[in-house]
Amino acid sequence: MKLIYQHMLSFLLIIVTTVSIIGYAEIDYIKNQTYSQNFQRMESYATTIGDLATSENNGKSLLSDDFLNKLRFVLQGDDVNFRIFNAQNQQIYPKTNVPMRLPAKVFRTLKAGKEIQIRNNNVERYIGQTKSAYTGVLVPWNHGPGNLVGIIWIGSTVRNVEKPIMMAKRNLINALIVTIIVGIILSFLLAYYSTSKIKRLSKATEKVAAGDFDVQIPHKNSDEIDHLASNFNYMVRKLKKSNEEIEAQEKRRDQFMADAAHEMRTPLTTINGILEGLEYDAIPEESKPKSIALMSRETKRLIRLVNENLDYEKIRNNQIILYKTKFDAAKVLKDVTAQLQQNAAKANDQLELQVTDEIPIYADQDRFTQIMVNLIQNAIQFTRDGKILVTGKRLEHAAQISVIDNGIGMSAEQRKYIFERFFKADPSRARLGTGESGLGLAIVSSLIKQHGGKITVTSEEGKGSNFTITIYDKGYEQFVTEK
């Protein structure tokens, strides 16, 4: 069954059930009230006739057959009938050929001075068979305490008493029919209002499943479905962002595979050519040392490419152990810049160091050296005929190192992915050396995170970049849990 029909049925059942309960309670109330009023009326008749029966005029009862006949004729116009019994439980009016008596149990109750109210005497339980079903009362007449004079049964036909009840039932049925019609209309409107929102969600979900992440559902935050729509919109935005990141990762992975294949193919081709030349004595004797040296450099280049990948995986998966000690970062920076001066000179770059005499730092010295080599080599790689400045200083409970260049710089989009694996800010400008695989900055970022430090980068296209790392003292590390 469709949801709209389920909602309609639910609303309709609630409305009909509520009206039925209220109607039943109202009919029951009217029924009780009607019978109660009838009993009061019959008791009033019985008491009045009883007062006449117990009164005397010259020693005679005021009730005579002629009077009772006239009274009976008058009351029959109102569908009221009565019977009178004497103190010996014999029916004395109207007179019958066969003696009529009240059941013994009923007579004993009346003789005890108790009144009996009868809703329906159709089972001959009280006064015997009657032509029509009657509701009435049996009232004893006493002349003084314990002195039973007679008993009167007076009642009205049930049909006459229940006329207001039947009218109330008809009104209830009419009201129920009107309620069902109105309920169907209202339930349809309410169900349509609710299910239309769900339909919008369903259609939007189908679009998302088909790959459309630009779907947004308008809502007013008025109920739970609107809240669900808001969460759906948030989810779609997150999915879109994730999808864009996945696509970007895929592009970088494809680029890395192409770069790695190119980087490996060049040295492997060189090594293979030299080996074939040596095999067939195609290389002159005086050129063999240079060929072997070239083959050695190309082999080391391949080993470095593989090692960087393995190193990154170990760092990323926390499979390395940091041996952190307190040492002088200024001395390490002087050694690193001295080692890389030759690489900077090849690019016609000026590599300068500006540090204080001593910069105490708490870190793994080997890994700190690796971080600085990668950062400075990255600056050399993307700076030509420029200047690279390395600065270092102490902060409160931390050491801060910056590598500043005036190279090609980066756009905002490039800065977003600069620490991602395989990413290259400008693959066309990459030159041989550490970092051409696109893993250098990813390794740097992972190592700094494991140290409990942080790295920031500011850059502008055509004006250069500024990489700043902060490594905190023992007890002040700032470890960030990635979600």
From TrEMBL:
Catalytic reaction(s) noted: ATP + protein L-histidine = ADP + protein N-phospho-L-histidine
Domain Histidine kinase, residue spans: 259-475
Source organism, top-level taxon: Bacteria
Enzyme Commission identifier(s): 2.7.13.3
Signal peptide stretch: none
Keyword annotations: ATP-binding, Cell membrane, Kinase, Membrane, Nucleotide-binding, Phosphoprotein, Transferase, Transmembrane, Transmembrane helix, Two-component regulatory system
Protein known as: histidine kinase
Classification of source organism: Bacteria, Bacillati, Bacillota, Bacilli, Lactobacillales
